[in-house]
Design brief:
56% of the residues lie in helices and 15% in strands. It is of the alpha+beta class. A hairpin with a 4-residue loop joins β5 and β6.
Length: 184
C-alpha cells in the first residue's frame, strides 16, 4: 500500500467483509422461521466424498415451520436423511421417497436464550475483525511517507468513522436477529 486513499479503501473493504460475514453467519442460526440456509453447513456422504447438502439437493422453505430437501439423485435419499439427523441442529427429517420433509419444532425458551448467546459470540467475532481492520489501517497510515501530518490525521479520522459505522451495523444486525429468535 503506498497511498492514503488505498489504505482507506482497503480498511473500508475489510470492514464491509466482516459485516457481510457476520450477516451470513446469522442466517445459519435457527430462529422461529424456516430458512434453507439453516441446512447449508450440513455435509453429505455422496459419491465417495463429503459434499455440502446444497450441492446434492435443492433446499426450500414452503412453510414457516417446514424445510424440504429434494436430492437430485434419488439414491442419495438415505445419505441426506442421515446427514440431517447427525447434524447438531436437533431435526428429525421424514423421507417419503421423493422428498425429505424437515419439520422445525418450536424453540424452547432455554434454546432461544442459548441461540442469543451464540449470536452475541458471532457478533463479537465480527467486531474483532472490524477493529483489526482499523488497527491495521492506522498502523499503515503512520508508516506512510510523503504525506503531511494533516492528511494522516484526516485519514485516521476517516478510518475511525468507517469503524464506528461498521460496529453500528453489526449492533443493528444483532438487535434484529435477537428479536427474530425471541419472537414466539
Amino acid at each position: 500500500m503506498s497511498s492514503l486513499p488505498e489504505v482507506q479503501k482497503h480498511a473500508h473493504g475489510a470492514m464491509q467483509k466482516a459485516i457481510e460475514n457476520t450477516r451470513h453467519e446469522f442466517t445459519t442460526i435457527r430462529s422461529g422461521k424456516a430458512n434453507p440456509s439453516l441446512l447449508e453447513g450440513i455435509r453429505v456422504d455422496a459419491y465417495g466424498q463429503q459434499l455440502p447438502l446444497n450441492q446434492v439437493a435443492s433446499l426450500s422453505a414452503p412453510e414457516p415451520r417446514l424445510l424440504t430437501v429434494q436430492p437430485w439423485d434419488r439414491s442419495l435419499m438415505g445419505a441426506v436423511e442421515k446427514a440431517i439427523q447427525a447434524s447438531d441442529l436437533g431435526l428429525n427429517p421424514a423421507n417419503d421417497g421423493a422428498i425429505i420433509r424437515v419439520p422445525l419444532p418450536p424453540l424452547t425458551e432455554e434454546r432461544r436464550k442459548e441461540l442469543v448467546k451464540v449470536v452475541h459470540k458471532l457478533a463479537e467475532e465480527g467486531r474483532i475483525a472490524i477493529r483489526h481492520a482499523r488497527t491495521e489501517a492506522l498502523a499503515q497510515i503512520k508508516k506512510l511517507e510523503h504525506v503531511s501530518d494533516d492528511e494522516k490525521k484526516r485519514g485516521e479520522k476517516d478510518v475511525q468513522k468507517g469503524h464506528d459505522d461498521a460496529i453500528k451495523q453489526v449492533d443493528g444486525l444483532v438487535k434484529g436477529k435477537e428479536q427474530e429468535i425471541m419472537e414466539v
